[in-house]
Design a protein that fits this description.
Helix content: 25-40%
Radius of gyration: 19 Å
Structural class: alpha+beta
Distance between the termini: 32 Å
CATH class of the largest domain: Alpha Beta
Largest sheet: 7 strands, mixed
Number of strands: 13
CATH architecture of the largest domain: Alpha-Beta Complex
Shape: globular
Length: 298
């Protein structure tokens, strides 16, 4: 009998970045301890794509790009509707969770942004609320601010699965991140190395996709270099790891692991502690042990 797996739900997330004294920082949000997903973990702002997010007739009048440009800038294998849906969802979820609105208006002021945030802080996120906010107040979504980063798909072995597009966007200089106090309870700006160090020490808890992303971001030595080099970045192949459960915790095997295609991967849990890798070292395996995900060698 062929084993069936749950379908992956389309989702989108934004890696907000800003220049720092040395290099650049990214913004991470701590998910509420009551959350059904990744409770207590630090993540990039993001969430599920809603049905309305791909309705071109609703969004194109309020976007900084036409349908052809959206397809070129965000598509890369997605059709125009999918590209629009992921982009709108990324902007909407980032506003809902972090209070950062990637949009502008001819008449926008600090007060109009404050009004939008007061509406957001009311927490009434029923379907269509964001479109009503944008259309009623003549905001224009800045889809052009988004850059493609990576396409992640949850391992088949995990019950709740997501098909997620990761975008990178520079933080608007006139805005401030503010967790929603509903799904997220705390936010921090960290350099990629600081984020990886804090996870390894247990000060903040990260999941494997966030760890892999931060590790990849360590390769860029400045904010300008990052934004310049990802301006035309393709989505690349979907990153869909394998998950191997252990008696305690489990281990995630990334697609670039030398044994990824093997029918069976032998894991000796008693030796994993000896294979822990230092912060900054490239890795293809992430071990969940005592509530913390840690990079380990092959």
């Amino acid at each position: 009998m062929t084993k069936s797996f749950p379908a992956a739900t389309p989702s989108a997330t934004i890696i907000l970045t800003r220049p720092a004294a040395v290099g650049f920082e990214v913004y991470l949000l701590k998910r509420s301890a009551r959350s059904r997903l990744m409770a207590g973990n630090y993540v990039f702002p993001g969430g599920m794509v809603d049905a309305i997010d791909g309705e071109a007739e609703k969004w194109l009048p309020h976007a900084d790009m036409n349908v052809e440009t959206i397809s070129q800038h965000l598509g890369g294998g997605l059709d125009s509707r999918e590209a629009l849906a992921y982009g709108v969802a990324a902007i909407r979820e980032t506003f809902e969770e972090a209070g950062v609105l990637l949009a502008h208006s001819n008449g926008s002021t600090s007060e109009s942004l404050a009004q939008a945030n007061r509406r957001r802080e009311a927490g009434d996120f029923r379907p269509g609320w964001f479109h009503a906010l944008i259309s009623e107040n003549a905001w224009c979504l800045e889809l052009g601010r988004l850059n493609r980063w990576a396409h992640w798909v949850t391992p088949l072995e995990i019950k709740r699965r997501y098909d997620t597009r990761f975008f990178v966007a520079d933080m608007p200089p006139d805005q401030t991140c503010l967790p929603d106090a509903l799904e997220t309870t705390h936010g921090i700006w960290v350099t990629p190395i600081e984020g990886l160090e804090a996870n390894l020490s247990g000060r903040i808890l990260l999941r494997p996709p966030t760890m892999v992303t931060l590790q990849a971001l360590t390769k860029f030595n400045s904010h300008e270099t990052l934004l310049r080099e990802i301006a035309n970045r393709p989505w690349g192949m979907p990153i869909q790891p394998r998950f191997i459960p252990l008696a305690e915790g489990g281990i995630t095997i990334e697609p670039w692991d030398p044994e990824f295609e093997a029918e069976h991967i032998e894991i000796d849990p008693s030796r994993l502690g000896d294979k822990l890798l230092p912060v900054g070292a490239d890795f293809s395996r992430v071990w969940q042990h005592q509530g913390v995900w840690r990079p380990v060698g092959v």
